[in-house]
TrEMBL record:
Stored Pfam families: YgbA_NO
Region named Disordered: 108-132
Protein name per UniProt: Nitrous oxide-stimulated promoter family protein
Organism name: Psychromonas marina
Transmembrane segments: none
Domain of life: Bacteria
Compositionally skewed regions (Basic residues) per UniProt: 119-132
């Protein structure tokens, strides 16, 4: 998985917390750190990749407010199931993350996509500079 800075990292941390709540309830895992079931681990890897490549970068709106739907239909449905179950439970298990996520949903969606704002682009650009 890719390291995600600032707001992208916070969004991934929120997704990770939701997946752990969901996985523990539906996949009979003990949920030791890093011990999600294979299906949930694959979803987290997929979500991390999509956040890393988000063209909005740090200005990213929450996924349900985003005009670009980058998840494939199967993963989008999986995310919807996870968030529908874990979302309300986040207030009890991770209240700060839940409140931050609710506040992020109120942020305005940028009217245009900034050029080269994705974390992936910035990471690759840093590597290119170091190699020169």
């Amino acid at each position: 998985m890719f390291p995600l800075p600032d707001l992208l990292g916070l969004e991934f941390k929120t997704i990770q917390a939701m997946v752990k709540i969901y996985c523990k309830a539906f996949h009979n895992t003990d949920n030791v750190i890093g011990k999600e079931c294979t299906e949930c681990r694959d979803f987290l890897i997929y979500a991390n990749e999509k956040l890393d490549r988000c063209p909005y970068g740090q200005a990213k709106p929450t996924c349900n407010n985003c005009p670009i739907h980058c998840y494939k239909p199967q993963q989008r449905e999986q995310a919807r199931r996870i968030m529908r179950y874990a979302g309300p439970r986040m207030l009890l298990k991770h209240p700060i993350l839940a409140i931050r996520h609710l506040r992020a949903e109120k942020r305005a969606v940028p009217s245009n996509i900034p050029e080269h704002a994705s974390n992936r682009h910035k990471r690759k650009h840093r590597i290119d500079i170091k190699q020169q």
